[in-house]
Amino acid sequence: MRGHIILAAAVALAGAGQAGADDLVRVKTGKSVDAAMDALQAAVEGAGATVFARVDHAAGARGAGLEMNDAELLIFGNPKLGTPVMQADPLAGLFLPLKVLAYADGDGQVWLAYQDPAEMLDDLAVDDDLPAIGKMQGALDKLTAKAAGG
What we know:
The chain has 150 residues and is of the alpha+beta class. It has one domain: TT1751-like domain (TATA-Binding Protein). It is built from 6 helices and 5 strands. The longest helix is centred in the C-terminal third of the chain and has 18 residues. InterPro entries: DUF302, TT1751-like_sf.
């Protein structure tokens, strides 16, 4: 299990330095981080995608004797969407599977955040018109809206 958590963290951090503020989509929610992440996980699984890992960053901080606001990361994907992108450029595997972060900001407001797939992959040899990119964008939009709402 520890190996899976370390692998999940490595996957999550693979593209972290690439994201600019323009590339990030944030969705406001009135739920707690845990409730928003539970709703997101249920939406992802209900859509037929695979959840690979759920990382509780705040729990990791507490385990190291540190404090931080609640933050959890969900790593998930669908090979029918991800595979064509990685076929176009194997380096897309650095950014896939998809990731959504649920976090509480300094004011306690909870957000769901993710990097726009088109922006995330724009430095790779992946055609912006590849249908999988639009499908990923639509899926992230729908999943986060569902998790943030009811």
